[in-house]
Amino acid sequence: MRPVTRLVAAALRLPAARTGRVAVTRDLPVRVRDGTCLRTDHYAPDLADAPCVLIRTPYGRGGPIRLLGRLIAERGFHVVIQSCRGTYGSGGEFAPLVHERDDGLDTLDWLRRQPWWTGAFGMFGASYQGFVQWAVAAEAGDELRAMVAVVTASATRDSTYAGESFALDTVLTWAELLEAQTVPWLARQWELKRGQPRLARALAHLPLAEADRVATGVTVPFFQEWLRHHTPDADYWRARVFGDRITDVRAPVAMVSGWQDIFLPAQLDDYARLRAAGARPRLTVGPWTHGSPGLLVAALREGLDWLDTHLAGRPGPERAPVRVHVGGDGGGWRDLPDWPPPATLTRWHLRSDRRLDRTPPDTETPDRIWYDPADPTPSLGGPLLVAQRAGAVDNRPVESRPDVLTYTTGPMSTAVEVVGPVRAEIHLRSELSYLDVFVRLCDVDRRGRSWNVCDGLTRVEPGRFPRDASGAVRVPVTLWPTAHRFAPGHRLRVQVSGGAHPRYARNPGTGEPLGAAVTLRAGWRDVLHDREHPSALELPLVPAPSTPGR
Fold first, then answer.
1. Using 50, 70 and 90 to split pLDDT, how confident is the model at 386?
2. What confidence tens digit (pLDDT) does each residue in 435-477 have?
3. Residue 516 contacts residue 454 (beta carbons within 8 Å)
4. β-pairing verdict for 344-350 and 356-357
5. 348 with 408: CB under 8 angstroms?
6. What does DSSP assign to residue 200?
7. 293 pLDDT above the threshold of 60
8. Which of 70, 200, 340, 458 could lock onto 420 through a cystine, CB 3.0 to 4.6 A?
9. HEC profile for 209-270?
10. How far apart are CA 187 and CA 184, in angstroms?
11. 315: preceding bond cis by omega (within 30 degrees)
């Protein structure tokens, strides 16, 4: 065992290594059906009958993933790390999600021909490394014995167009990150040190069809395609999502995610579909964003345990099928038999004087805000691709804006624990037919700081939601699921606004095409909360334990 892996394993409290002798062969050429050569590294432990772990990635085979390969190999697995086509020496052109099924299955055929192949393999990876797992999982057969899917999902379309908006920050930041892999290291470090000014300009730029060139200096084909093919019925996505066969997957699946992760709702949908099909996946959701260091450490520990149990036949101690971290003061880890747990659904109504109350409204005057897409309501924290900008932050700067409404309870006399799906129903009238509704739940502490817990956005356009005789429209908003404890003395707060830019692309208010819109139309909107229009947030309440979590 090398000193660096010994130190890392000790720091991360990983299981003991089974061998210190790992032979590494780099840049192996794996030729797939269309003749493209995919560059591949092989980490071979000096153990007989060691099964294989496959990691396919567009992010290179050096740096941290090289260390990961050796750590896993030292624990008794052949590790094969392959660069997706068009990345880091692999031939062809990188086109997200297009070739991953065929390339993955062809790589499996290559594995079967290796002298060290034992007839069993597992897969491991986060984000895009998880998409490629789902691309082949249904067709890999009984040889696939285990999957470790970290902050990822079988279908990416709904995460890209959450609420039928467009996840601008995530998509453009990812496009810039991929393009940055092709520039010299010093140039990249200089851009990061300056705070990525090109990306910041691109996120504010219109039309969006030019934003990729502003951010990277080149036109990014998939970014252009995702701007064009954004409608729910677009044929483009049918071959790029893999959820339609998730119930055919027989391999045991371990899922790891975070409450502030960009793919959390889609990943929990995968969990629910596997459970409905009779599978028993393991689920861990912690206090993490997409790139949190804590997430990566937990994923490695969970992944090694899962691979040991289901791939190598070395089961460890039993643990609950679901383990979630409850945020907030006095929260902590909870073991659950399933997700979501039984809960009491409660409605917290938007009321006059900006109150949030369990009592339904009667006759109340609407609250009015002006939304101007030329000065869009900014996003602050939350589920973002880049960990440094993501997560829970003090929301008072955005709550002080005139285009944000807040509704707040009085101090809680006892702890309130919310665990499960969160939904809102906002009734409004507007002079505009095209608009967005953003809703965020916050925890206001004793010092008055307002910490975001979960949120969601819904895009409104003609015909999507019916209007009543008064011209009001009821807008359902699905927020991120959560697990959070509101401590005694804290208050619940709901924000309602017209957007969260640049996390979501601003709604221009005109109905112009997503990529071409340049005309911006501002307008009033009235948020209603009366007997006929009871705007409310629906929260799943569970009994709060009398002692703090662990």
1. confident
2. 999 999 999 999 999 999 999 999 999 999 999 999 999 999 9
3. no
4. antiparallel
5. no
6. H
7. yes
8. 340
9. HHHHHHHHCCCCHHHHHHHHCCCCCCHHHHHCCCHHHHHHCCCCEEEEEEEECCCHHHHHHH
10. 5
11. no
